[in-house]
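Exam revision sheet. Question 4 asks you to relate a sequence to its structure. Input first:
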Amino acid sequence: MKTIFKTMLLLIMSVILNSCAGLSGAVKHQEPDRLNGVVPEAFHFNIQDKTIRNYLAETEPDRFPPDCQLDRKLEIILLAGLAQAKDEEDLARVFDNLWQKNVKIREIINNPQKRADLVRPTAEIYYFLSAIPGADWQHETANRIYTETLKDIKPEQISGYALHFYTLALLKNGKSNTALPFLLRLKRFAEPAAYLKDLSIALSFAIKGRDYSTAVKIMKQVCRFDLQNNLKFPDQQMYDAIKVMKNSGSLSLAQIALAPLIKENPGLGTFQFAKLLCKKAVSKDKQRLIAQRKIIIKVQIIEAGKDSDHIDINLTKAVESLKKTLSYSSFKLISEKTFYLHTGQTGKMPLPGGSKLEIIPQKIISKNAVIEIFITQESKEIFNTVIETIDKGSTIIGGPKTGSEIILIRLVTDIFL
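Answer key, structure tokens:
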């Protein structure tokens, strides 16, 4: 009986030791997926956290049993390589080594069909290719992987380090607006101090790319997150961003977004960024003159698709700019309306699918206007942005999808002083 008991015990221990842990030496329990949870560090070109670096160094994916998830194995291989990079220049050497040694990594890069169930390693390969400085073919390959696969993924599809590095890759590639929902999801996985630093880094990328509309959304997140967590406020980064926007004539975007938040939370008003943001008082005559300025906004609701080359005759003049800006081949005018509005007035019109569009001119200065745009569904706001436009200028905004088509909102402005 003792012999049988010992044999059973040895068999049980053997099963435990050969679980999907992959760690060198004796392992008593299946190791949790530590790369898919909390990210204990801020954006950096490689992995800095010592605990994660040790985990990657000690984990041997080749020892994983066949039934262990392939994406987890590849993620460990990729991030272990990333942890070895000495600087950004060294990323090229590390990636070349991974390319040569791992056939699965080559398959992901060369075959889009191999990526469907491997979103996490695909996102990390995209980061590798995006982060290597001055490498044209790597950046072209990164753009191809994004266009073929990653542009369609949703934030909820990735988490942990894959989300961390994918968000950073989008920022590095000048896609600050696309990165924003992924950055917001990252809050669930990052430690508070690290996340506040992530927001500051994302703000720097948006300002550098002159994406001021996204920059002000990030600044709002910085303020709200700091108020919730009572951390060291990144006043210098905020001040520098406001200064750039002021010098570029885009200060009003920040004022519209941040002034109500500062008013609700007087403590924010003590920071230098808020003082720079404050606008000097203007005379009553000047206020009256500004209030009298009018803008004509022609709004066109357009259905765009890729299944044909049909161009609506009513869009002949606009088709060149539509094709130049967007990767669609057919354009159909669904509806059109012209609004005559003063600052603060609201123009409303229905959109396909039951949603509604609202446009509000917030400021008209010389031949420039700032317009806030809302889309609501059943009285619930589902989209909000602020645009700057010039006299006789046009702006195109992507709206809701309808099957294989997408609704575009085109605004053409005519400013009267």
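Marking note for examiners. The radius of gyration is 26 Å.
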